[in-house]
Design brief:
168 residues, alpha+beta, 4-stranded antiparallel beta sheet, 4 strands, 40% helix
Length: 168
C-alpha cells in the first residue's frame, strides 16, 4: 500500500511541476511580447510612425490617459512633431520575472533604448528649425535611454501594462 501511495505522490508532484512550468512559460512569453511590442508601439506613436489605434492592446486606458510621453503628441509638445521618422532601432531588455499561474499582477524592470532613429525634419519646418537649433537639428532628437519598473495586470486573460515608473 505504501509503495503505491509513494509512487502516486511522486507522479502527482511531477505533474504539478509540469503544469506550473507550462503556465510560467506561457505567462512569461505573453508578458515579453506585451512589453516589447507595447513599448515599441508607444515610441512609434510618439515619433509619428504609428497612429496609436492599437495601443489599447498593450496598455490600460488609464495609463494611456496619464502617460506624459503619449500625451505630448495630443498636446502638440512632442519633440518629434516637426520630423518625418521612417524607422527606429528599438531595443528592450527585461529583468527577471516570476509569476505564478494564479497571479493577476506582475512587476518587471525593463530598459528601453533607441540607438538609431531614421528621419529628417519636414521641408516646411527645415529653415525655422535649423535657425533656432542649429544644423544638427535636421535629424530627429535622440530618444533617451531609460529604466522602467513596469506593472502588468491580467485583464480577461490578457496581460496589459498598467504603469511605467521611470527609475534613476
Amino acid at each position: 500500500m505504501w509503495f503505491l501511495a509513494s509512487r502516486l505522490l511522486a507522479v502527482c508532484l511531477i505533474a504539478g511541476i509540469c503544469v506550473i512550468s507550462f503556465y510560467y512559460a506561457m505567462n512569461l512569453t505573453n508578458m515579453q511580447i506585451i512589453v516589447k511590442d507595447g513599448m515599441a508601439r508607444r515610441a512609434q506613436y510618439v515619433m509619428g510612425i504609428e497612429d496609436g489605434t492599437d495601443l489599447g492592446k498593450y496598455f490600460q486606458s488609464s495609463f494611456l490617459n496619464s502617460d506624459a510621453t503619449i500625451q505630448s503628441v495630443s498636446n502638440g509638445t512632442s519633440p518629434y512633431q516637426y520630423y518625418t521618422v521612417r524607422g527606429i532601432d528599438h531595443r528592450i531588455e527585461m529583468g527577471f520575472v516570476w509569476v505564478w499561474p494564479w497571479d493577476e499582477v506582475c512587476r518587471v524592470e525593463i530598459r528601453e533604448s533607441i540607438p538609431r532613429i531614421d528621419g529628417r525634419v519636414r521641408a516646411d519646418y527645415a529653415q525655422a528649425i535649423v535657425a533656432s537649433y542649429g544644423a544638427d537639428a535636421v535629424y530627429p532628437p535622440s530618444w533617451s535611454e531609460a529604466w522602467y519598473r513596469a506593472t502588468l495586470v491580467r485583464e480577461s486573460g490578457q496581460w496589459k501594462i498598467r504603469n511605467l515608473a521611470q527609475m534613476e
